[in-house]
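Q: Here's a chain of 353 amino acids. Please give me its 3D structure as tokens.
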Amino acid sequence: MTQAFATAYKSPLHKMTQTTPTNLWNDSASIQELTYSIEHGAVGATCNPVIVLGVLKKEINSWKDRIQSLIQELPTATEDEITWQLVREVSIRAASLLKPIYDTQGGKNGRLSIQTDPRFFRDSHAIVKQAEEFSRLAPNMIVKIPVTKAGIPAIEEATYRGISINATVCFSLPQCVAVAEAVERGLKRRERDGKEVASMGPVCTIMVGRLDDWLKVLMEKDNVAIDPGYLEWAGVAVFKKTYQVFRERGYRIRLLSAAFRNHMHWSEFIGGEVVISPPYSWQVRFNTSDIEVRPRIDEPANSASVHHRLPRFGWLGARFLASEPRLFVTAFKLSERLFERWEKQRSTWLGLS
């Protein structure tokens, strides 16, 4: 690392945030981790029940008394109700760290992303109702809504009601286009009614690493022989193609890269008006690396490696760049597994076992 770099920028991630339009969010609501991330240029963060479990494991001394207080204050509450109250309070605490950024940047950044209950994924009304409640927890909340059949109309309605959304459980270009169109419908409805839209900051998450993971599963399942390095480019190819389509169509929503598996889920997207949201451990890894910080978003993915070989993966390989969003089922299998992990361990952390 040169002396000039060390003097001007704290880290590669900090350099990215200071020299390109690419934003950094922290994939955690841990105060310790978020503080580190903000020091390196972060302007947002995410939370969900699994993240809250991680926060409790890491910061249990800070939360133990509050957990006991909640149990006493809510004597008839179920474990589920206490859990969701903890999700609210962890999110509110993290949001307070981001509020100055929110004020400075007029609402586009400085938000804490809180997730609606994944069990509502088939109920638009329940999603919107909870999104409204969560959006009122702090002025700088952004609410995660799943990209499902019920989630798409919920995204439109929540947007119309002035709620900034983070579309989640999303893996494919068709899902992203459906999200962007829903957000546009919601924004246009607001504009027709004379409602403000300038301070809203919607994003659409692509879980790039989980797409890579699933192709690897299919490779084993279908006995496909392929250089495993090719599969590291699948999520990158989807993200770059989607970014191109969003710019061409002028959608007023940013893409967010999540589910990191390698440095390309950060480095290949530098230079885009997008959000990079790595977990703390990946941020530390990136910040100690010698990966060059330069714009790559407009450089083609390794198309000779990816596009020409995708047909070998059947409908998924042939269609994940351009067809209907058939990854919904897979998406929610993954989501349910994560939620099951939280369900199995929360009793211990709530002191109810």
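Q: Can you summarize the key feature?
A: Confidence is low (pLDDT under 50) at residues 1-5, 303-336.
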